Amino acid sequence: MNILRSVLIVMALAVESASAASLFVRPTTVILAQGNSAAIVTLTNSGTAPVTAQLRTFAWDQSGNEDQLTATTAIVASPPMMTIAAGQSQTVRLVRVAKSRASREESYRLLVDEIPDRAAGDAGSNVQIQLRYSVPVFVIPNPKSLAKLSVTAEVSDTVLVFDAVNSGKSHAQISNVVLGYADGSSHVVGQGLVGYVLPDKNRQWKLALPEDLAARGKPQQVRATVNGKEMAVTL
């Protein structure tokens, strides 16, 4: 009984800490379109205690099937650190520093980190939970530039290998990957965001499939949402 009571106390403290530090960032993607050099990002603290957040900007590239982030001052967040009172919001100005127009799409990431309360952690009264948001930021000089995605897919018993090559001049956002079968049924493989392919880059994802899925037979196609539009690949 004492052991159970101790476990319940620890769980209660963890829940209390999580609810006391609830940081949300909007929007989840920032677009700086032609003629715009700044955007507003809003941080909201829905918890019951103050939250301190740090903001950092990174140039974003892709190589070796990995995202590569490099600290940059080409785009800056102001202020770079803040403390937000419980139940309050604060805006951040995200600015592209260069005055010249971008000659191609530029890709960045805004990292928003919740800074744990060291005093509370030292006291040992709460379980510290640190949040991180990684917000894509795109500078788009030409709104007519489009992604041009070529996709191949291969299904084994337990893995869907999804290869995407973007030969276009704009990024491709891939989400909601679904296997389609001849009888009209489907199986959702990747719910929500799967990832991005930047211009002139390629990415591969290996998405796990349940072991019993092979019993349904070979799927006929793979469907995915690319920049809000559905595309299909015949297997």
Automatic annotation (TrEMBL):
The signal sequence is 1-20
Q: Record's SUPFAM superfamilies?
A: PapD-like
GO:BP terms for this protein?
cell wall organization
- Domain Pili assembly chaperone N-terminal span(s) in chain numbering: 25-142
Pfam families according to UniProt: PapD_N
> What are the entry keywords?
Signal
Q: Name the GO cellular-component terms.
A: outer membrane-bounded periplasmic space
Q: Does the keyword Transcription apply?
A: no
Record protein name field:
Fimbrial chaperone protein
Which lineage is the organism of this entry classified under, starting from the top rank? Bacteria, Pseudomonadati, Pseudomonadota, Gammaproteobacteria, Steroidobacterales
